[in-house]
Amino acid sequence: PLARGAAATPLSNVEPDTSLDAAYERMQTRLDAHRAAHGTRPLALAEKIVLGHLDDPTQEVVRGETYLKLRPDRVAMQDATAQMACLQFISSGLPTTAVPTSIHCDHLIQAHAGGEADLARAKTENKEVYDFLASAAAKYGMGFWRPGSGIIHQIILENYAFPGGMVIGTDSHTPNAGGLGMVAIGVGGADAVDVMAGLAWELKAPKLIGVRLTGKLGGWSSPKDVILRVAGILTVSGGTGHIVEYFGPGVDSISATGAGTICNMGAEIGATTSVFPYTERTAAYLRATRRAAMADVCDARADALLRADADADADDVYDQVIEIDLDRLRPHVNGPFTPDRATPIDKLAATARAEQWPLEVSVGLIGSCTNSSYEDMGRSAAVAAQALERGVRAKAGFTITPGSEQVRATIARDGIMDTLERVGGTVLANACGPCIGQWRRDDVPQGAANTIVTSYNRNFTARNDANPNTHAFVTSPEIVTALALAGRLDFDPTRDTLTAADGTEFRLAPPGDVDVLPARGFDPGEDTFQAPPADAAAAAALDVVVDPASDRLQLLAPFAPFGGAAELRDMPVLIKTLGKTTTDHISMAGPWLKYRGHLENISNNMLIGAINAENEKANCVRNQFTGVEGAVPDVAREYRDTHGIGWVVVGGKNYGEGSSREHAALEPRFLGGRAVIVQSFARIHETNLKKQGLLALTFQNPHDYDRLSGNDRITITNIDQFAPGVPLVARVTPSGDDEATFEITLNHTFNAEQIEWFKAGSALNKMKAEFAKNK
């Protein structure tokens, strides 16, 4: 835990009893101890931060193999995931969090009519949840950001992120803080609870991908295009098990919020996190956000702690190096249906016609945690202002989501909001909104094929509006603005023209040198922060009440410990999923977000978006006992309740990519699942499954996926030999043919401690048992 007490330079202005100097002293001491034990070779920045947070700094580290025990500086949670994390923390019986922790209300606000109306409606509809989170935050010592404060990652960047620090957050886009030089990692709620409880946090030592940036961004190219290009190179799984570190002379041309954009969307390549070094642009952002003292301390520590060693050779410190020349980088538009399908803007029209994508843009949407800074809004307004001068308004719908109350207030004061509204934009609440499916959409019929263009990060099928025929593309805010003005996907602002009100043709100029930071400083806007009570006794006396009749919140009952090999015998395959199976497919967001604090109710959406390989339908599986087809959650419940038997999910590559939501693991566990067997996992989801006591297994031979069907039964035959590095064996019995059984070998990445989680029924069960033993 961080040292408490008066500090000249706090880690955050809203946490005055923390100390930046103490954090850096600990980091330096750990680095010195590690170097003394293992040598003084040059280190990358990511290595310095990770090694500087080791619980045991003498631990030998082998990338891709060693499980590290780390001591993060803080925990951050958004309101949808904080509900379950708080419920788990409450069940631990601990009196207060051991590290600085914050809760951010941004996920439960549905976009529809506009910011003020949508926020007012959300406060009424979600009052029970907001009251629960506010009271839990006060009782257990957490900061609480009320609805309307902004998106978690923008709030962290403005208030909590500091160079060289480590934060874990219950949202997959936590890496946004890497723009300020932080190792910021998305996790499930159970991981957050470990750190809140004062335990070391476990992470397999990541490998390193270095992205060397040369040249300077210019024209229509933006920081967003860097990560869109990297996504095209690495794909949605190419960063799995890696930290991506940006280096080279080009980093100096990228602002802190631009670097945050790049790090944020690193989640879409599966990266553990991404990070930028400390630069003058970092210092400028710290000073602009009222942290000048922090910038002074960082200036003094920069070479030692906040940048890669000067003598570090890229080929020696990185496992892979990617080269990007910013001078030659073209604007990109990625999609549809996957964020790694990268198309340069000059090839978009031909590609769209060849693929028969809908060419009319129905809505352009700027904002989200990826692109909602003052700089982003200013660049969009610079494009919009040119159209207004010529009497042109957006031909498509156009929405604007400020990243925080501070950004909203400042763009309102500086005229940016007025420009965006006059061109046809609707300003939404300071929240996630359509980016996570919180969008009540009226402009097209459900199921209609249409195109939207966003500055968001993800564009999985049906993610934004629950319409599987919405073709969603992600790009920079300025390109979104240009395409919304044209109303066409095949419009290229670098060479095509618009028609002015007087009939003349004109070409939009790129945004140019807009203010990256407000010349008059930020306007903080409305104060939306609730600090925890200063009086510990008063906090302890507070009550956190969960109504047993609530359909939004439900106290957690512990999962049963593993009962022996019989539990893993003749388990029916509930579903064999076909194609991409993201956490959106496993546990949808959108209207289901309101049940994130009620495990029984949220489990009604388990795997309803996944495609069944047997019939190529969603939410339709065959009950192996009755032969009748039913909804996935219903069949799972019948297996659990009527037949008292566990079941298995079979899936393909990068299973569970996307969000950090642990509900995608909690729901299968709650409904009786025992194992998930796939070709490969996304990192966070694999960990979440382990934390909840499920067997996360991969085919030793990936082609065994093709041998299994959704009608098979599976027995794990050697669970009594479950040990690190020892594969498990499954006996597969095809439907209706007991004589045709065959065996397959299944790999796993469980270490000894994680096997204890499985035996105990969950990591939380194991933690509670340890605390009880040590009392």
Can you give keywords for this protein?
775 residues; 7-stranded mixed beta barrel; 6-stranded mixed beta sheet
Can you lay out the helices and strands and say which pair or pack?
Blueprint: H1 20-38, H2 45-51, E1 67-70, E2 74-78, H3 79-92, E3 101-104, H4 115-125, H5 127-140, E4 143-145, H6 152-159, E5 166-169, E6 183-186, H7 189-196, E7 201-204, E8 207-214, H8 223-234, E9 242-247, H9 256-264, E10 273-275, H10 280-288, H11 292-306, H12 314-317, E11 320-325, E12 332-334, E13 342-344, H13 345-355, E14 361-366, H14 374-389, E15 397-400, H15 405-413, H16 416-422, E16 426-427, E17 450-454, E18 470-474, H17 477-486, E19 498-499, E20 505-506, E21 529-530, H18 536-540, E22 571-576, H19 583-586, H20 599-602, E23 621-622, E24 629-630, H21 632-641, E25 647-650, H22 663-670, E26 673-678, H23 683-691, E27 695-699, H24 704-707, E28 713-716, E29 728-733, E30 742-747, H25 752-760, H26 763-774
Parallel strand pairs: 2-3, 2-5, 3-4, 5-6, 8-9, 8-11, 9-10, 14-15, 14-17, 15-16, 17-18, 22-25, 25-26, 26-27
Antiparallel strand pairs: 1-7, 4-21, 12-13, 19-20, 22-28, 23-24, 27-30, 28-29, 29-30
Helix pairs in contact: 1-11, 3-5, 3-7, 8-9, 10-11, 14-16, 14-17, 25-26
